[in-house]
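Protocol step 4 of 5: obtain the predicted structure for the target chain.
Materials: sequence only (see below). No template structures provided, no constraints applied. The aim of this step is simply to have a reference model before the mutagenesis design in step 5. Sequence pasted as it appears in the construct record:
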Amino acid sequence: MSHLLRASYLRSHPRRSIALAAALVVALVAGLTIAAMAPQAQAAGSLLSQGRPATASSVENAAFPASNAVDGDLGTRWSSAFSD
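Step 4 output (structure tokens):
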């Protein structure tokens, strides 16, 4: 551990410990400010894959084809063949 961060050093140099604490607060505030200013991600208006052809290397059974993965229906799903 750096001698600048040891508790005994900070107790014997109170001005440096205050300066270190202030520097940490400034760094934290700066980081939060930068994060808050970052552009927010947004989803596309529609799924680019919706309705496109889909291929799978395996399916659980005929009720869960690969095309269900991109059909846009929240009531359907694709499932792969299970193997352990």
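Step 4 remarks: Helices lie at 7-12, 14-37. The chain has a mean pLDDT of 83.
Proceed to step 5.
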